Each structure stands twice: as structure tokens, then as C-alpha cells.
Amino acid sequence: MKVKEGMYMKKILEAIKNFFSASHERERKGIQATKHGMFNNFVYAVKLTWQLNNQFIIAMIVVGVLSALYMLIGIYIPKIVLALVENKVTTDTMIKVLVAVGIIILVVKLINTKAQYVGEYAWDKVYKGLVSKYLRKSFTTDFKNMENPDFLDLIERSKHAMYNYQGISGYCRRGSNILSNIVLVVIAGAAIAVINPLIILVLVVISYFIYKILDSTMEWTKVNFRDAMSSNFRKNYYFSSTARDFKYAKDIRLFKMQDFIEQTWKDINTVYYAACKKNHRKWVMCEAKMSFLRLFQNLLLYVVLIYMVLNKGMSISDFVLYIGLVASFSTAMTDMFCNMVWMNMNRMELDDFRTFLDWNEDKPDIEKGQGVSKNIGLKQFEFKFENVSFKYPGHEKYVLKNINLTIEAGSKLAVVGINGAGKTTLTKLLMRLYEPTEGRILLNGVDVKKYDRDTYFKIFSPVFQNIEIFAFPVWQNISMKPENETDKNRTMEALERSGLDEKINKYENKIDTMLLRIFDPNGVDLSGGERQRLAMARALYQNREVLVLDEPTAALDALAEDRMYQEFNQMVKGKTAIFISHRLSSTRFCDKIVMFEDGRIIEEGTHEQLIKANGKYRNMFQVQAQYYKDKEGEVC
Ligand code: ADP
């Protein structure tokens, strides 16, 4: 019996403790605590907003002060009216006083409303500025980050910092509310303290408990609901965008994928709804606790004030005034704490945004002389891979192992091997979309890290097997530049050389035709082969020093492929080129062939040398030659 009683007692004590304790959900969940404190983030938010549009901050200050004044006037009006009646003033005086008060209220209200409108309008500009920062970071972050789930979740979470009334906007608005609360607390508090300072103490203590309850619930929501659901939001977005994306429409219908996609989507949402329910329950409990405390507080104050009227000779007009002042003080106090709780939530959102903007990029180590050179200034380009090994970020397996390879200036290198051998990864390292895990890559004897990455990117013209087209006009999909930096005649020439001109010239707007239907309902899409020709046109237009061709003809028919090879031969004259192809006969025009298997180079030499060596290359070549012979036979 005693043991049972002890258990109940322990549970009750725990419940009381939980009732008042603030939680530290992030720490409990092992999530790194936010990097910047409340004040630090507040200064950051105000500074950033001020830079983007200072009217927003000014408006928030004006609104903060005037809202408090407006409330105080409201509290004093009943007192003034009652005092006029108690003092039996003339009707004339009463009208004059009331008109004066009315005018003051009207002026304060009008200025406040105007400031609110100015604030809303200014916020729009701040928002655009934030989105611009967000987009710039998303566009320029290291390529590898775009497939890092932690980073992708952070991108998703950072959005909250830009929404109105959340993150940065929330921070400034809460700041404005707190300013208003402080004005009220100071003025009302001073008036109340004159009659009894104990009242202030009770109000502060109870408001503090309300703050603690709200704070722990809010932190719980941020960590267990909003953060926890960020990958869920991302997956949801994937399904909704896949459903309306024309690219997937064919497969979804032909393979009858609707049902299982919908089921997967429902499963994701089942998890989401379960989290919503838990979150909702948490908030109902929070409201119940806060209402209980508020009720207790009001009862206590009424008892004190009624006692003063009955025993201390307080006038009715003063009673009404103090009821108003006490109510305002306590509301302002709890409001101030609540605003601090919201601010804490905004702090976490802002922290996500700052973490996103400050995300560690593979910055060159300037002290080691890396990333400093913005001028490559070379005429010849010779690359050398020195003991290069590589694994994708977050993966344990090496995709390339100890690669030693020289691509001589002006030479054509063919890279062959079965799927997954590491050929594309080699080109990604060469173009510095990723940095080697071990070893280094040299350009004319100099570590490529020495060069500024954007400058380095500019020496390559890549043609990939899968290319994405942008919802821009055709010419812009070739020049990849704004109109004033584009030579449209040259884009047309490139289009002719890639063999896509016939198709594009059939459209009314020719080279100005919009691709995709995002901005133009009459926009057009391109087939796989046409996209490859477009990629080829891009490379021709850019006319850069080093060509990287990664299975550039995979989607083309035999005739188009033949024509494309003739163009390649023209294009690569005098240039360094790397050519990946699964069709070995097409690699003959190359000076050297390297064969990859499981991330290693297993054979290296000219076509003739490799055939003579009688190894895997020869074997693969013969199998393919037989296949094409058989195909020819079938056609005949
Ligand atoms: P290939 O071009 O020879 O077909 P890849 O270089 O594309 O081969 O791929 C080599 C290996 O690296 C494969 O096992 C592939 O699954 C893996 N891989 C490719 N891209 C990524 C990536 N972004 N993240 C993780 N692994 C990858």
C-alpha cells in the first residue's frame, strides 16, 4: 500500500514539475543548439531588414509605441468620464473634454493605421530581398550540397525565416509588440505600484509561469513537428510536383503508377497527420494550463481591489481605472513573455536561415594559395590526375581508386567501361563539380585548386547525355546568358550545325520560341535526341577550350549520330577533349582510350594497342561489332 502511495506521490510531483518546467527539446533530441542567441539574432534581423528596407523598421517602432498609447488612452477614458460625473462639472466642460479626448484618439489611431500600412508595403520589399539572398545561395552552393539530405532539409526549413509573421518578419514584429508591452508595463506598473507594489509581484510571477508553459510547448512544436516534418514536406512537394510534371506523365500512365504513387503519398501523409494530432494535443494542454493560471490571477486581483474600495476608501472612478490598469499590466506582461516565446521560435527559424546562408562551402584555402587565380590565361590545356581517389559525400564506398592519368594538351581521350565504372564521376572531378577525396588534379602542372572555381568552370564546354532544358526562349537555352550578352546570329549558327534548326524554324517564333509551358502556354518541349542536339548547340556557341562529351549521342538515331560525329571532329580540332561513349567504334577518332572497371583504369592505349593487347577492351569491342553486324543483317 505504502509503495503504491509513494508511486502516486512521485507521479504527482513529476506532473507538477512538468507543468512548470521549460523544455529544451533541441538538446534533448541531440540537435545542435542554435548557434546565435536571442539578442544576437535580433540585431541580425533588424540590421538585415534595415539594409533591405528601413521603412519596415521605422513603421514597426511607430506601431509599437502608438499601440501602447492607444491602449492607455482607452483605459483612462472611463476614469475621466466617471471623474467628471463625480465632480459634477458643467455639460459644456464635459463636451469639451470628451471632444479633446476623441480627437487625440483619432489622431493616434490614424497615424498608427498609416504606419501599419507602410509596414506591410515595406515588408514586401524586404521579402523580395530575402528571397533573392535565398535563391543566390541555392544557385551558387557547392554542387555536392544539392544531393545532401541534411542540406536539402535545411533549405526547406529556411523558407520559414522569409515568410511574413515568421522568422525575420516575426522577429521584428515581436520586437515591435515587446516595445508596446514595455511602454504599457512601465506606465501602468508605475501607477499600480503607487497603491500596492505587491500586486506587481503577483502579476510578474504568474506571467512568468505562463511564459514557461508556452515556451516549452513552442519549442516542442518547432523540434518535434516543424523540424521533424521538414523532410516530410520535401517528400510531399516531390509527389505534388511529379504529378503535374509532364516529364513523368507518360511513365506514370503507361506503367499505371497512379495507385502506388498515391499510396506512398498517403503513407507520408499518415505520418504527417499523426504528428499533427500529437502537436494539437500538446497545444490543447498548453491552453488549459494557461487559462487556469489567468483565471487564478484575475480572481486574486479582483479580491484585492474590492477590498480597497470597501476598506481603504478607493473611489469608483479609481477602481475602474485600476481594474483597467491591472488588466492591461497583466495582459502586457503575459503578452511580453508570449512575444518572447514567439521570438524564440523565430530565433530558431532565423538560425536555420543563417546556417543555410553560412553553410560551409568548399572554400579554397587562400593561405595555401588556393582559389586565388582569376585568370587562367592558357592556350594549351593538359590535365593530370595524380593518385586521385573519390567517394561521394556521405558514402563509404570509393567510386574512383588511385587514378593516374594524363590528358595531353590538344588530345582526345576516350573513356570507356560498363555502366557504373566511374566514367562520369571522372569528368565531374575534372570540371570541379566535386573535389577529389585523395590526390590532386593538375592543369599544366598547377593544382587546379589554385584557380578560382568560377573562372575554372569557364574553360569547359560539356555535352551530357541527359540535359535539362530551361523555360526560356530557344536562343537563351543556347547562350545561357541575358539578351544583351547574347549574339543571336551565333545561336542560330550553332543550331544549324547541331541539326536542330529545321525543327525550330518550323515554329512561328523560330529561335524566340519558348521552351516548356511554364511561362508561355504555347511553349514547346523537345525529345531526348533534340535535347542532345540543343546541348551540342550550347557547346558550339560557347566554343570553350576543353570539351567534355558524356555519351552525347546516346539518344540519337544512326544518321543523326553520324552527323554529330562529323561536327565533333570539327569542334575538337586543336582542343583538349574527353569523350565518354558506350559505343566503342565511335572512340576511334580519339588519340588515347582508357578503360574503366570498378573505379580503376584497367587498360590504356590507342585503339590499335588495346586490340593487340587482347584484353577486356578487345573483348567488348568484338561483342559490340558482332551486335551491330547482326543488326545490319536484320535490316537487310
Ligand atoms: P558511369 O559513368 O561509368 O556509368 P558513374 O561515374 O556515373 O558511372 O557512377 C559510378 C558509381 O558512383 C556508381 O556506382 C554510381 O551508383 C555512383 N554514383 C554516381 N553518382 C552518385 C552520387 N551522386 N551519389 C552517390 N553515388 C553516386
Give the helices and strands, then pairings:
Layout: H1 2-20, H2 25-28, H3 38-52, H4 54-86, H5 91-140, H6 149-158, H7 167-195, H8 197-227, H9 230-244, H10 246-254, H11 258-312, H12 316-357, E1 383-390, E2 400-407, E3 412-417, H13 423-430, E4 438-443, E5 446-447, H14 453-457, E6 460-463, H15 474-479, H16 488-498, H17 501-505, H18 528-542, E7 546-550, H19 558-571, E8 576-580, E9 592-597, E10 600-605, H20 607-613, H21 616-635
Parallel strand pairs: 3-8, 3-9, 6-7, 7-8
Antiparallel strand pairs: 1-2, 1-4, 4-5, 9-10
Helix pairs in contact: 3-4, 3-7, 3-12, 4-5, 4-7, 4-12, 6-9, 6-12, 7-8, 7-12, 8-11, 8-12, 9-11, 11-12, 16-18, 20-21
The structure holds adenosine-5'-diphosphate.
The site of adenosine-5'-diphosphate (ADP) has 12 residues, from α13.
List its traits.
alpha/beta, ABC transporter transmembrane region fold, Rossmann fold, 6-stranded mixed β-sheet, 4-stranded antiparallel β-sheet, 21 helices, binds adenosine-5'-diphosphate, ABC1_TM_dom, ATP binding
Say which CATH homologous superfamily of the largest domain is assigned.
Answer: ABC transporter type 1, transmembrane domain
Unreliable runs: 18-33
On the 0 to 100 scale, the average pLDDT is 86
CATH architecture of the largest domain: Up-down Bundle
| Structure annotation, total helices | 21
Highest CATH level, the class of the largest domain: Mainly Alpha
- Spatial strand sequence of the major β-sheet: 6-7-8-3-9-10
Biggest beta-sheet profile: 6 strands, mixed
Percent in strands: 5-15%
Radius of gyration: 35 Å
Query: What characteristic shape results from the CA principal axes?
Result: elongated
Transmembrane segments: 56-77, 93-111, 182-211, 292-310, 319-342
Protein name: ABC transporter ATP-binding protein
Main location: membrane
GO molecular function: ABC-type oligopeptide transporter activity; ATP binding; ATP hydrolysis activity; cysteine-type peptidase activity
